[in-house]
Specification:
2 copies of one chain form a homodimer. With 237 residues, chain A is mostly helical. In chain A, 83% of the residues lie in helices and 0% in strands.
């Protein structure tokens, strides 16, 4: 009797199910972010409202994934290396849930901007930042789907550019606020959208770090990008 | 032979250790928030720098707590009800780490405000909001220390007031930006500090929800306060 093997097989099946659910949650969250950005940039109030009011779906998926993970831990008692997968999935679902929260916030702000007066003047400012953020999120989810450490590290390396883009957009918005004090409210809303986008980028980096943890078993969350690269990337010839 | 009991005793000892570590982490994070607020309101650049540069301690504690929890899961294989505790602790440590990040952000902004020109005019604006946020954080950590569901629910109920206070502070800052366009930069920094404070409040609510999950076994993270109260509070005579 090979109980270990037996447990591990059952565990693999259940893990595949929960992994598929995380991927589906990732797809849903990515769609929410894409819609939120479109609603913001194009000034589509209805689409913005749709994003803002469907965050509950993301929340439900997190609760379901957490429950499944807790069941796996309790019933399968996976060994140390397998445990990592479950712990990484719990943390990834938390990050996806927070990305969903940021998309919801952008949705609400986009709705106010689309419905209000003069909102159109500035709402296209975060367009480029938004595209970069969708790219890093897509890269992170893709790295998770393929459990690809190299892709995870490459994707995480996009974040400093996003931060720089956010800083420069903020400076632009500040200049505009000083020039047009009457537009301060709308410009501040645009700035909050930009900040939410920047945070989505941070969560995408967390997901990349979970992929590394999951595959390599090292908790790299508080290492610098340089340290991570030195440790896990082969030097190229 | 009572293996269950045996496992559970060892588990209890190890759990006590990790629980003490979470409490210590909570104390450290609370101290960081208190210092960050003081540095902001009093314009103390050195204190601000101290806060901004000691976030690594909080990060190290999270890594250590996570490693201990993973070991407990792997070696003790706790049963379903005990598992909850470990899962709750992993999530709580993540919330504390994010509170530490927000304190660090406030520290950096406070430093810029303290060192810059004219920073003093507005930096005391978030004083009252800051005190409310320190209260809710203290309440949440206290509810965890005593595993007190009622206190957790009461503490979480403070959050809507904090949100309202944040909204009203934001409106005040917007009015000031419109009146004094030259101060937009500093006012925006104050607004970001306020936003970080508001987020610390949100994380304190998460901690309250973890206390409920830990004691009652229900995942209440996406329920409304009213639903939580109806479910877990005894009607008072």
């Amino acid at each position: 009797m090979n109980l270990d093997q037996h447990t591990s097989q059952k565990y693999n099946q259940e893990l595949e199910t929960v992994r598929a659910e995380v991927l589906a949650m990732g797809g849903l969250v990515e769609g929410q972010c894409r819609k939120a950005l479109k609603a913001l940039v194009k000034g589509r109030a209805e689409l913005a409202e749709e994003v803002a009011s469907s965050d509950y779906k993301v929340n439900e998926m997190e609760v379901s994934i957490n429950a499944k993970c807790t069941d796996i831990l309790a019933l399968r008692q996976p060994a140390a290396s397998d445990l990592r997968v479950v712990v990484a999935i719990i943390r990834m679902a938390a990050d996806l849930e927070r990305i969903g929260d940021e998309a919801e916030k952008i949705g609400r702000l986009a709705q106010t901007l689309a419905e209000g007066r003069n909102g159109s003047s500035y709402r296209s400012d975060p367009k480029h930042l938004g595209k970069s953020v969708l790219d890093i999120l897509n890269g992170a989810l893709d790295a998770f789907a393929r459990l690809d450490v190299e892709a995870a590290i490459e994707t995480a390396a996009m974040d400093p550019d996003i931060d720089a883009e956010f800083e420069s957009l903020t400076r632009l918005l500040i200049t505009r606020m000083m020039e047009k004090p009457a537009s301060v409210k709308n410009l501040l809303r645009v700035n909050w959208c930009a900040r939410s986008l920047e945070r989505i980028g941070d969560h995408a980096v967390n997901i990349c770090e979970e992929v590394i943890f999951l595959v390599k078993g090292s908790d790299v969350r508080h290492l610098s990008l340089k340290e991570i690269q030195d440790r896990f990337l082969q030097p190229t010839a």
